[in-house]
Amino acid sequence: MEENFVTITKNGKLSNIDENNLRKNDIVVLQAGDIVPADLKLIEARELEIDEFEITGEIKPVDKKVDENDEILFMGSRVLKGTGKGIVITVGAQTEYGAILNQKWEQNHHYRFQIINKNTICFSLLLLPVLIIHLITSNISLLFIIFYLLYSMVFILLQNDDLIKYRLISKGQKKCDDLKIQIRDVRVLEILNNIDTVCFDKTGVLTTRQFDIKKIYFADKIIDTNSDFYTVEKKTDYLVKLACALCNDVLYFEKFDSANPIDKALIIFAQKHGMDVKELLSQIKRIYDKPFNSENRYMAVGFETNDKEIYYLAKGDPDVILRMCNSYLTSNGNKKNMDSRFWLFNKLNFDTINQNKDTVIALAYSSDNPNQNPSGYMFLCMLQLENKLQQGAREIIEQLSKNGIRSILLTGDKAETALRVGTDCGITEKLSACLTGRMIDRMELSEVAKQSSYCSVFARLLPSQKGTIIRLLQQKGHYVAMVGDGPNDGIALKVADIGISFAKDSSPIARRLAKILINNLDDLLKLFECASRFRKGYNRLRILRTIVLVVSLLSIYAWILEYIVG
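^ that's the sequence the OP posted. Answer follows.
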């Protein structure tokens, strides 16, 4: 069995122990590349950057500081940069990640039914005395007796709920198989009829898992990247793409998959617009490197090409990048000194991007060594990055609403991002109607339950908090489906009446805990359509069953009346 060692401080000395021997109040030392071995309370941090995607679903790395509210490090998250120390507050199954792993895996279930229903058999036998008496006192043909037996069989079959449901569920299962929707438990097709609330995770469900560059803000022009990028002057075009391709921590193209989402978006953009990044990396030599950290809020790199050309490129927070520049480059290739018009135009652009709650970064270029001339950069542009909605997400939410089904967003992402996505896809119309995990911690569960009737966007949630909200909805009489794709959705998928994940592009934990696996978000409507057909078919058979029951009772009354009178 492989042992995983963690570094702790004990009596002022560092020592390595098996992570299984970690105890509450131990002090764990972390550095880049480490996996957090327990839930920790941060007590020391130096430029600490954590990947919390597995726990919260947030695709952007999180900067951790001791003096901020968000000072908890979760087991299973990954240290990307920096160092830190934390006190163990929970270990193993008591951690958020442990609670997910302890969920019972979903097994395949087949529908079981009784061919013979005692109640309907007994009711049918009640008709026999009347029939026998009628046979004795009157001359009944053999044809009538055969008709009676056939009628009794039909009556028994129609009164057998299990048999009817089995037939309808089998048809629904076949329809789902044709659509390549995997049903882990066929009983959910019946439960789907009762669903009145659908909870959605954000990243990977309502939105894609990557960023895209939406617009480029030059000093004199705003350009939509999907339409008119090539109207930019050749030199400006080249410098922007060069900064996108090289101003990152990817030294070898083979390491592209390990890049953070923003760097991936920039590299993909450069490739999409004609730059061979892999070839470029093989032809340059890195001569300068200033890594990004949360204090400086920017990174810078320097390269020398085979032609002995030197480029210094910077990327980061627009406020920081602008202070490093003494000139700017226009979209038509003209270099100009900073002026009031430039500052006003950039401020308006920056405010516009912030109103959309999108991510914004700035790019700059210099031919001089930043160590010798730190304020000698030339401003290139600002990039507006968005986490796009999945295709058809808004239409799906609207259709669910038309069908009387409420949609709720449960995410570990920031409140601002959650509200933007909730508004864009139609889950909410109020830009301030959001509850965060920290707010929920300070509220009574009864108050959370009350607020859940009005609030449809929940942000910065832990996996257990997603499960709590679903439980509260169920206690109020709602039937809840959860659509999620990450390990952080595991508890919610298990707690919900129906857990739905994706056959592809979802975590193994989500797939194992879901009762239904769909191919894409569009399949959700097809799934409810199958359930609707089940409900309509079942209702029609119930009507027919009622008619047969009424006819049976009338027949009994008629025979009894005839016997008494005759």
